[in-house]
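Protocol step 4 of 6: structure prediction from sequence.
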Amino acid sequence: MAVRETQSTRLDRIEDKIDKLSDAIISLARVEEKIASMEKQLENGHDRMNNHGIKLDAIESQVTSNAQTVSVIHRVFWIVVISCATVVASVVGNMLWG
């Protein structure tokens, strides 16, 4: 009878250990799912950052183009202003002197 009690106690301990192992395996599966989810989110974040980089490159080229256009318009504006001032000065000079 003592042998049966010892075996029963031993079987109970083995069952407890198996239960703990089952819990550990379930916890590991949950952790793996979380890691997979985090990796997917990280990959999505990298994709979004790459897309933003591409958009920034396009904006940068457009800004460069616009800067050149504004520079040309600025020069034309001052040429027109100086030409008008020259014409006005010439007309006023002719009116005063003759």
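Step 5 (inspection) to follow. The mean pLDDT is 94.
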